[in-house]
Structures are given as structure tokens and as C-alpha cells.
Amino acid sequence: MAMPNASVLFTPLISNKFVCYSSLQSSNHIPYTLPRFVSKGCKFVGCGSAVPKLQISNDDLAKIVDTNDEWISSRTGIRNRRVLSGNENLTTLAVEAAGKALEMAKVDPDDIDLILMCTSTPDDLFGNGPKIQKELGIKKSVLAYDITAACSGFLLGLISAASHIRGSGFQNVLVIGADAISRFVDWTDRGSCILFGDAAGAVLVQACNPEEDGLFSFDVHSDGDGLRHLNATLKESEAANAFDPNASLLDFPPRRSAYSCIQMNGKHVLRFAVRNVPQSIESALSKAGLSVSSIDWLLLHQANERIIDSVANRLEVGREKVIRNIENYGNTSAASIPLALDEGVRSGKIKEGQTIASAGFGAGLTWASAIFRWC
């Protein structure tokens, strides 16, 4: 039997969106048309955040390491941070943040199609996503999984959410950025313990008509060579093998392993961020056909006030257009951007329809930028 001849046509749908269809003609001239694929847009319709109850000030840290409030605040901009304690865990923070985002968006948990849990410090080695699904009371078996990219994780989650919506027909995607970095901090190291805190933030990304699309562009990178400057690697226990070494196979069973405390070359990370983040944001703006002057807010990962100020200066963005909350929370890794976004929205600073240029950077080394519109 002869196969039909096929011709593939690409026809404009609206603006720069395209419809693809195939017109197939068989020997008896009966036309066959494949289903049409129509790209969706995505918009950001709800946000929420949560932080632990325990607040640790610079003066509190000065009681356990050789430091003081002036030394910390002048170098980092940080005065306080929140740390998990008691019965709190990362899951409870993430669920609280997610619930607030759903409430703002007026979306029922059972209407969620996908949960992206962006974290490098899950409560379970196998991931936190499914646990979030259960704790939110979602009855259907929606997909939930983790994204591990530390301080860049949340933006990679937003980009992934947009891809799922545009390419796979998802309607409501919950993106959560949450980390409990305090679990991996050496609290005797004054160079790193002053920087980190715990938190969670969430955003609901929703499908919309293409002309309402709120994610204008993005720019993503990684450089594995930079891992040596910021890491928390797996370390083998120094304890002897539990079995008699004379009666067991060489190096088996393996010794127990655990992740080390965070190791960071602060000066290199600062230079890396100041060099690469402005370039990434400019690249994302170029892809969107926008200029720096057209953005309403610059929202960076809250790692260090010196980095935030340096990036803003290189982009020539005025201080009044920079979102920051590092003073109260320190570096909360994947929670950093959604936490600051939520505070900006709920305070009335960030308004509907405004354009935000955001960038995350850190472990990996990874860095990502996105240009998006709030609601």
C-alpha cells in the first residue's frame, strides 16, 4: 500500500506564535489534518512565604564566634536570620508558603497539575515534592518532584513551569523555593555562619492566552569548574568498617557517608556574581526586546548586599528600583527570590502589570535570569 504524500506548513497564529499542521493526501484524495498545537502563555497569579519562628541576630552569633554586629552588617548587609527549631521542618514551611500562594490566586489545591519543589536541603534524600502534595491535601496523583540548584533553583523552577505549561498543557503549576541551609552550616566558622538562614517561598504559575504571557525571556548557565568554590560534598565516615576487615571484601560494605558543612570561597563567589549576573540579565533583556530602563524592579538572589549593589550599579539601576530584604533573613538559598517577591507584593510595592528582572546565582556554579510580569 502506497504511503500518502505529506507537506508541513507553518502558519502565523498571532504575533510571533505559530500553528503547525500537516496536510496529508492519500491516493483517493481524502484530506487528513493532524491536530493543531497552540502554544499557551503563562502568568504569575499568587505568591506566599513562610519563615521559622526562631530569629538569630548578629549579637546572638557574637556569643559563639568571634564577630560583632558592625562587622557582619557592614560586609553583608545582614542583621538577622531565621533558623528552624523545635518541631519545625522544611516541609511545614513549604506547605505554609504554598497555601498562601494558592489563597492569593484563589485556586483549590486539587486544581494543581504539577508541584516543583526547588530545594537542596530536603527533609528526605529522595525528595520533598510528593510530601508537599500529601500535606496540601491533594487527592489526585499529580506529579511532584524536586529541582536541586540551590540559589538558582527557584528561577529554574519558574522556567520549568513555563515549559510544562507551554509544551505539555499543564494549567496550574506550583513552584516552591525552600531551603534549610542551617543544617549544613559550620556554626564555628565566622566566614560562613553569618550568611545563611532558612525560609520558603512559593508562586503559582497559571496557563493563559499567548497574548497575556508573563514570562518574557530567560537566560541560564552552569559551570562545573566553579564547584570547588561553593559546595557541600559527600564525605565518607572515618569510622572503621563495622565488619572484621579480615573477613570482608576489600572496601565492602562501604562506610556510611554524610554531607559536609558548606565550604565557600566568598571572594571568588562575589567576583563571579558581579561579573556574570549583569551579563545574564542583559542577555535576557535582549531576548525580550527590552532595555534596562523598561523594568520596574530588579530582584536578585539575596546573597550579600555588596553583590546586590554592585550588580545594580553595573546595570545602572537606581537603588529605589531594587527589591531587598537581606537585612532580616540573610541568604535563604532557593527561598530567597520568592520570599522577597512575596513581601514586595503584599506590601504593595510590586504592583500588577509591573516588569521584574530577576537573577539567581550560586552553588554548582549555576546562574539564571528571567524577565517576567507580575500578574
Walk me through this protein's architecture:
This protein is α+β, with helices and mostly antiparallel strands. It starts with a strand and ends with a strand. Helix 6 packs parallel to helix 7. 43% of the residues are buried. The N terminus is likely disordered. The protein is globular. The protein is built from nine helices and 19 strands. Helix content is 27%, strand content 29%. Strand 16, helix 7 and strand 17 form a beta-alpha-beta unit. Strands 4-10-9-7-8 form a five-stranded mixed beta sheet, sandwiched between helices. A five-stranded mixed beta sheet has the order 11-19-18-16-17, with helices on both faces. A three-stranded antiparallel beta sheet has the order 1-2-3, with no helix packed on it.
Key phrases:
29% strand; single chain; alpha+beta; five-stranded mixed β-sheet; 9 helices; 27% helix; 375 residues; globular
Topology:
Blueprint: E1 5-12, E2 18-25, E3 31-33, E4 41-50, E5 54-57, H1 58-61, H2 69-76, E6 80-83, H3 90-105, E7 114-118, H4 129-135, E8 143-147, H5 153-168, E9 172-180, E10 198-208, E11 215-222, E12 230-231, E13 234-236, E14 257-259, E15 263-264, H6 266-288, E16 297-300, H7 305-315, E17 322-323, H8 326-329, H9 336-346, E18 355-362, E19 366-373
Parallel strand pairs: 7-8, 7-9, 16-17, 16-18
Antiparallel strand pairs: 1-2, 2-3, 4-10, 5-6, 9-10, 11-19, 12-15, 13-14, 18-19
